[in-house]
Amino acid sequence: MLTLGIETSCDETAVAVVEDGARVLSNVILSQTEHTRFGGVVPEIASRAHVAAITQICEEALEGAGAALSEIELVAATRGPGLVGCLLVGLNFAKGLALAGNMDFAAVNHLEGHIAANFLNQKSPIGRHVSLVISGGHTLLVEVRGFGEYRLLGRTRDDAVGEAFDKVAKLLGLGYPGGAKIDRLSDDGDPSAIRFPRPMGKSADYDFSFSGLKTAVSLHWRALSEVERRETVADVAASFQEAAVDILVSKTVRAARELGVSLITLSGGVAANRRLREAFIDELSRMNVALHAPEAKLCTDNAAMIAAAGHFQFLRQGPSSLNEDADPSLRLA
Ligand code: KG4
Ligand code: ZN
Prior knowledge:
- By secondary structure, the chain is an alpha/beta fold.
- It is built from 10 helices and 10 strands.
- The strands form 2 sheets. Strands 3-2-1-4-5 form a 5-stranded mixed β-sheet, sandwiched between helices. It has a 5-stranded mixed β-sheet with strand order 8-7-6-9-10.
- A hairpin with a 4-residue loop joins strand 6 (129-134) and strand 7 (139-146).
- The radius of gyration is 20 Å and the shape is globular.
- The two termini are 27 Å apart.
- The site of 5'-O-[(R)-(carboxyoxy)(hydroxy)phosphoryl]adenosine has 19 residues, from helix 4 and helix 5.
C-alpha cells in the first residue's frame, strides 16, 4: 500500500512516498532559506513559501518514487503541533488531493511521526520502548507501548533542547539554525573546559529544563574579552553540548532501566547530534539496552515519517474525516 506523506508544520516543505509504512520510495525536503537573515522562522513567510513550493515538491516526490498519483491509496498530512498557517497549507493540499483522487486521508500528529521515523526502512515493528523526541520545538520522553499507545514520562519545563542549541549558537555568532554548527565546532573544543550546570539532571522525575543552562552559557560568554571569545569559542560550544547531552542521556537511560525496556529510540533534529549518539552508545554498552536512531535526514522534519505514522494510524483506526482541523498545540497522548 502506497502512502503519500505531506509535512509543512514549520519551515520544511516535505513530501514523501512510503510503501507499507516502512519502505521509503522518495523523501523530498525543501528547507526554506528565507528565514536565515531573521535568525528564526517567520510564520507568515513560512506559510507563503509552503504555498509556492508544495505542488512542485509533490510532483518531485511522485516522480522520485516512480509512482503515479493513481497508485497512491492514502494521503497523510501533519495536523499539529506546529505553526497554524503552515499546517493549514499541507493539510488542505492533502485534503484536496484525497478528495479529487478518491483516496483515503489521514491527519497525523507530528510527534507521532518523529517516533515512527525510527521504524522506517526497518524490519522490526514498533514494540514497547522508551523514546526521546528532541527538536527545536519539543523535548519529550515517552514510553511507547506500540503504535498509537503512548505514556508521557517527561517533557521540558521551559525551552526545547533544540531551541537551546539554536540560542547558544546565535550567542556564539554561529548563525541559524545552530544545532549542527555547534555539533561540528565541538570537534575542535574541550567538552570539560567549562563545567556548565546540568539543571534537573538528577531530579527524580523525567522532566527537563534547558533555560538555566542557556543562561549560564550566556553569563560566561558575556564575561569574556573579544580575544578570549575568539580563543575559546570551540570550548564553550563543546562544554555546552556536553552538559545538554549529559542531561538527555542520564534521564533517558534511567527511564529505560526503571521501566525495564530493552530499546531506546531517538528522533527530532537534535537526535542527529553525533556526541549525543556516542554518549548513549557508551552508556548503554554496560546495559542490555539497544539504541536506535534514524539517519540524520529522517531525524529532522520530513514527510516519510508522516506517511509512516499515517499508514499505521489508518490500519488502527481507519481514515480521518476531511473535517479534521489543524491543531497548533496538539499533544501526543
Ligand atoms: O525536528 P526538527 O527538524 O524541527 C522541529 O520540529 O523543531 O529539529 C530542528 C532542531 C533545531 O533546533 C536544530 O538546531 C537542531 O534540531 N539540530 C541539531 C543538530 N541538527 C539539527 N541539534 C544538535 N546537533 C545537531 N547535529
Ligand atoms: Zn519536528
